[in-house]
Design goal:
The protein is of the alpha/beta class and 282 residues long. The chain has one domain: Rossmann fold, CATH 3.40.50. Helix content is 40%, strand content 21%. Strands 1-2-4-3-5-6-11-12 form an 8-stranded mixed beta sheet, with helices on both faces. α3 packs across α4 and α6 packs across α7. The longest helix is centred in the N-terminal third of the chain and has 14 residues.
Length: 282
């Protein structure tokens, strides 16, 4: 069931809460994704953990920004996540963040000491190749118009065939249901289109790499697990190696035949998350 709360600036935001009695886990989705992105993971974890899934502003069932360039920022979205913890009276959570959600998780750990008990970074790290980010943003700006959810799944399978080989078409149907809403039989992106333009402007101003080392270093005291897609160009093996050198206790796993970002329904990913959470909450 979708629930709502008010962000610090009054923006109405949505979240899902399994309301379990186990330790709380906060799932934060990627740039244009939402809490539905974690359906399989939530089903897997909910018997043992309280799984909370936030729709960041402008995504899913959350209210969209009035001034996108001011609101769709890491500091504002981090504040939203912390406001959700306050709303739920949770002093600390384990964060599982995909892509931008992982950046928000690092920002929470860095800026609000003690709120992040552990951090799972799904295909995001301390450095991003700007060319790879620009590729993703360009795809968003293309704003494809698919005549049906089935057509959208076929398109996504074709677009990602090189980095997500051997993924059944049925899994792309699940992804379509997660990232789109169906209106009169036509899939419509479940995010504010302005997100693509704001991201394009930020990417155009970036250097060859987006440097997140200061965030990573500030969050380094939190236990971390990094999940990397084997064919990802967002999180390189070289960056992951440097992160491990900086934090020797860092746990890492690479998911075969996955690019940016693993779905987190893969058996190796689930096993790694299970082990990480068990260690934190032992």
């Amino acid at each position: 069931m979708i629930r709502h709360f008010d962000a610090p600036d009054g923006r109405r935001l949505a979240y899902r809460d399994s309301a379990g009695t186990g330790p709380p886990v906060l799932c934060l989705a990627g740039l244009t994704r939402n809490g539905r992105d974690f359906e399989a993971l939530a089903a897997h974890l909910s018997p043992r953990y309280r799984v909370i899934r936030l729709d960041s502003r402008g995504r899913g069932a959350s209210e969209r920004a009035e001034v996108p360039e001011d609101e769709y920022t890491v500091p504002v979205e981090t504040g939203d996540a912390l406001a959700l913890l306050a709303h739920l009276d949770l002093p600390a959570v384990t964060v599982i963040g995909t892509s931008r959600g992982g950046i928000l998780g690092m920002a929470m750990a860095a800026g609000a000491a003690g709120t992040v008990r552990g951090l799972v970074l799904n295909d995001i790290g301390a450095e991003i190749e700007t060319a790879a980010l620009a590729r993703l943003v360009a795809r968003l700006q293309a704003r494809p118009r698919d005549p049906s959810p089935e057509a959208a799944a076929v398109r996504m399978a074709a677009e990602n065939a090189g980095t997500f080989p051997c993924v059944p078409l049925g899994r792309w149907h699940e992804h379509v249901r997660a990232v789109t809403d169906t209106v009169d039989g036509v899939p419509v992106p479940a995010h504010d289109p302005a997100l693509a333009d704001v991201s394009a402007a930020a990417t155009g101003e970036a250097e060859a790499t987006v440097d997140l080392w200061s965030l990573f270093d500030a969050a380094v005291e939190s236990p971390m697990l990094v999940i990397r897609g084997e064919t990802s160009d967002i999180l390189s093996r070289a960056t992951l190696a440097r992160m491990t050198a900086r934090k020797p206790s860092l746990r890492t796993i690479e998911i075969a035949e996955r690019g940016h970002a693993p779905f987190l329904d893969e058996r190796p990913a689930l096993a790694a998350i299970d082990a990480f959470l068990q260690e934190i909450h032992a």
